[in-house]
Design goal:
- The structure holds 2 protein chains of 2 kinds.
- By secondary structure, chain A is an alpha+beta fold.
- Chain A has 1 helix and 1 strand; from the N terminus they run H-E.
- Chain A has one domain.
- The longest helix of chain A has 11 residues.
- In chain A, 30% of the residues are buried.
- By secondary structure, chain B is α+β, with helices and mostly antiparallel strands.
- Among the domains of chain B are: 78 residues, Roll (Pdz3 Domain); 94 residues, PDZ domain (Pdz3 Domain, Roll), CATH 2.30.42.
- Chain B contains 9 helices and 14 strands.
- In chain B, a hairpin with a 7-residue loop joins strand 4 and strand 5.
- In chain B, helix 2 crosses helix 3.
- The two termini of chain B are 38 Å apart.
- The chains are: A alpha+beta, B alpha+beta.
- The interface between A and B is medium-sized, with 32 and 36 residues.
- Strand 1 of chain A pairs parallel with strand 1 of chain B, so a sheet runs across the interface.
């Protein structure tokens, strides 16, 4: 993924529990924090009625 | 949600190409997968990964989630659960050593398990995650499922530019990752494949006749191929087209330059040197699925076999014989 442009996904998408941003410096991209606990992500998705964007890297 | 360690992941549910840098799923809280985003072809790790294709996938994921919440979306049953520890080599070599399980570990673990059981068919099982390009479909990278150009068996089947692939064998496809997964799941004995495409607003069914080696990709880049025995006793780089012309190696025929001996091997002991161009193995100079003689050896020979290679060294044609071991070290 090196060299891919940094970009932020609009909040309007309202999709992500934690937003994926293609970047060499993911911590700074888009200002979102990654959820890394799968069980927590599932519970949040259930509570908030949102889907999950799950990235394996 | 980001996962960088597969140790406790259900790889039965999240079953994906083990040799990628990134792979994503959109799913709901009931762990029902809507779509995939990721995968790669032979040209590049990110040939189909870009901002537009990601946005398209995310928007589709939202749309599918809305339909699911409205009870309008039927999703397939959850696959049987599987954990990386189910592969003995992953457990002993990675998990028991308290290391993170990476995607490629699961791929190698699968190969090693099948090999240990004697069920590995190297000329069948190692050809995974095929490329639609082998069917003559050049796809738009921004959508992953829209036909940009068409040739070969896809053209014969009636595919046209701008067709949008919406199903493969009746299963929905929303992204390039979905499409590659569907191709991966095609049974090995299948001789044709049904696609549903959207053309000018209407859906059309097309049936593609599958060529014999339609699954063939450059699997020598895959870590699990290197888990297959035997070790060819040399490391080599396949010649470029320019180098083939330079050395008089025809397109499609074997041609690899020996690059380095990381450890002493039987090929080196027999006289093979760095820089040699290997162009023949046991009288074979080509195969329909690879131009790399090392891969051919790995797929067609077994540990303990003695092979004979022919090499070009400068203006000399030389011949060497050596015995194959299971592993380099």
């Amino acid at each position: 993924m090196r060299g891919m442009p940094v970009f932020a996904l609009g909040c309007a998408l309202a999709l992500l529990l934690a937003v994926s941003a293609f970047s060499d410096e993911p911590a700074r991209a888009a200002g979102f924090a990654w959820e890394t606990d799968y069980a927590v992500a599932l519970q949040r998705a259930k509570d908030e009625g949102k889907p999950i964007f799950l990235e394996f890297r | 949600m980001r996962i960088t360690d597969l140790t406790v992941v259900d790889i039965g549910l999240f079953d994906f190409d083990a040799d990628v840098t990134l792979y994503c799923f959109v799913l709901n809280a009931d762990e029902q997968v809507y779509l995939r985003y990721g995968g790669r072809d032979d040209t590049s790790p990110d040939a189909y990964l870009n901002e537009k294709s990601l946005h398209a996938a995310l928007e589709k994921g939202l749309d599918l989630h809305g339909k699911w919440k409205a009870g309008e979306l039927k999703l397939p049953a959850r696959p049987a659960a599987k954990k990386p520890a189910d592969y003995p080599s992953v457990k002993s070599e990675v998990i028991d050593r308290k290391q993170c399980v990476h995607c490629h570990h699961t791929g190698s673990g699968k190969t090693k398990l099948a090999a240990s059981k004697g069920t590995l068919d190297k000329l069948k099982d190692l050809w995974v995650y095929p490329d639609a390009a082998n069917l003559g479909l050049e796809l738009d990278a921004d959508t992953g499922i829209t036909v940009a150009k068409v040739k070969g068996v896809a053209k014969e089947a009636g595919f046209k530019a701008k067709d949008e692939i919406v199903k493969v064998t009746g299963n929905a496809v929303y992204t390039w990752g979905d499409l590659q997964q569907r191709l991966h799941e095609v049974p090995h004995d299948a001789t044709s494949l049904k696609f549903t495409v959207r053309r000018k607003g209407a859906e059309t069914e097309l049936e593609v006749t599958l060529p014999e080696w339609w699954r063939a990709t450059r699997i020598e880049r895959r870590s699990f191929v290197h888990a297959a025995e035997p070790f060819p006793e040399f490391w080599g780089r396949e010649l470029t087209e320019d180098e083939r012309r330079k050395y008089g190696v025809k397109p499609g025929e074997f041609g690899a330059e020996v690059t380095k001996f990381w450890v002493k091997t039987n090929a080196q002991s027999a006289g093979v040197q760095v820089g040699d161009i290997i162009y023949e193995v046991d009288g074979t100079r080509s195969a329909p699925y690879t131009g790399h003689p090392a891969l051919w050896v790995r797929l067609n020979r077994k540990t303990g076999d003695t092979i004979k290679v022919k090499v070009l060294r400068g203006d000399k044609n030389l011949e060497f014989s050596f015995k194959l071991r299971a592993k380099a070290w």
